[in-house]
């Protein structure tokens, strides 16, 4: 049975979430502030966090930063009313594994929680340090160095454009989960234009299809598959153990 920490200051929502997750066989502990949540995390082990951002006293992002510093690999799902693209990008770039905005669908929350927890238990997916000391991720035969923004597949360097790298990193960071088209396009728009590409070059679903096709071809020699999830986006399937 997985244990979840819910960090939420709305008492009614906290009670409702707790009850529904317990019915789904989760063990639940709760906190209504960053200070309370930190105390819980220092006193007991949990398998994942559902984190609100608008908390009294200190912002939920402070807890995310603390958790990323003190508890390696702990899955965090942000559940918040902050629905701006910049907020979502900031939360994911700060280390959240997923981001859902309120109001939300309980079935979707359940599905995303289970996907997040499965990914955290996936033995083929490991996070470590690269030879240069920076953060790296290995999944199957692919290793990516986040600090130097490069990738190695089967011991051979992968030649990637800036957009291909950003797409690959996003898919790897959320391996086994759906990455929506909007997620990719938002990440692209938040960064600088690709070298040699005009700043006004369109970033749309058609352009995304082209980059997904190119990235699939570059991963052909591996056991990594980028799946189309109809009507939603894409998912990097977990390699067979």
Topology:
Blueprint: E1 3-7, H1 11-23, E2 27-31, H2 34-43, E3 48-51, H3 60-70, E4 76-80, H4 85-93, E5 98-101, H5 106-121, E6 125-129, E7 135-139, E8 142-145, E9 150-153, E10 156-157, H6 162-173, E11 179-180, H7 181-190, H8 205-218, E12 226-229, E13 233-236
Parallel strand pairs: 1-2, 1-3, 3-4, 4-5
Antiparallel strand pairs: 6-7, 7-8, 8-9, 9-10, 11-13, 12-13
Helix pairs in contact: 2-3, 6-8
How is this structure best described in words?
One of its GO terms (biological process) is regulation of DNA-templated transcription. Residues 134-238 form the OmpR/PhoB-type domain. InterPro entries: CheY-like_superfamily, OmpR/PhoB-type_DNA-bd, Sig_transdc_resp-reg_C-effctor, Sig_transdc_resp-reg_receiver, WalR-like, WH-like_DNA-bd_sf. The chain has helices at 11-23, 34-43, 60-70, 85-93, 106-121, 162-173, 181-190, 205-218; strands at residues 3-7, 27-31, 48-51, 76-80, 98-101, 125-129, 135-139, 142-145, 150-153, 156-157, 179-180, 226-229, 233-236. The longest helix is centred in the middle third of the chain and has 16 residues, at 106-121. It has two domains: 3-121, Response regulator (Rossmann fold, 3-Layer(aba) Sandwich); 125-236, Arc Repressor Mutant, subunit A (Orthogonal Bundle), CATH 1.10.10. Helix 2 runs parallel beside helix 3 and helix 6 (162-173) packs across helix 8 (205-218). It contains eight helices and 13 strands. The mean pLDDT is 84. Strand 12 and strand 13 (233-236) form a beta hairpin. By secondary structure, it is α/β, with parallel strands linked by helices. A five-stranded parallel β-sheet has the order 2-1-3-4-5, sandwiched between helices. Strands 6-7-8-9-10 form a five-stranded antiparallel β-sheet, with helices on one face. Helix content is 39%, strand content 22%.
């Amino acid at each position: 049975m997985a244990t979840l920490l819910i960090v939420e200051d709305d008492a009614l929502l906290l009670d409702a979430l707790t009850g529904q997750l317990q019915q789904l066989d989760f063990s639940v502990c709760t906190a209504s502030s960053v200070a309370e949540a930190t105390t819980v995390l220092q006193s007991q082990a949990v398998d994942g966090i559902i984190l609100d951002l608008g908390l009294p006293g200190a912002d939920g992002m402070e807890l995310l930063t603390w958790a990323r510093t003190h508890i390696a690999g702990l899955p965090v799902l942000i559940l918040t009313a902050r629905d701006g693209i910049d907020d979502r990008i900031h939360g994911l770039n700060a280390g959240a594994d997923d981001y859902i905005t309120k109001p939300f669908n309980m079935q979707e929350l359940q599905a995303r929680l289970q996907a997040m927890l499965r990914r955290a238990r996936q033995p083929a997916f490991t996070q470590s340090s690269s030879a240069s000391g920076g953060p790296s991720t290995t999944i199957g035969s692919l290793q990516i160095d986040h600090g130097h923004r490069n990738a190695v597949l089967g011991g051979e360097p992968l030649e990637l454009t800036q957009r291909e790298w950003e797409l690959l990193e996003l898919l790897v960071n959320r391996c086994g989960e759906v990455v929506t088209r909007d997620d990719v396009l938002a990440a692209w728009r938040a960064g600088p234009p690709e070298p040699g590409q005009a700043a006004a070059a369109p970033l749309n679903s058609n352009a995304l299809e082209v980059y997904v096709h190119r990235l699939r071809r570059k991963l052909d020699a591996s056991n990594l598959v980028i799946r189309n999830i109809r009507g939603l986006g894409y998912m990097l399937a977990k390699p067979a153990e």
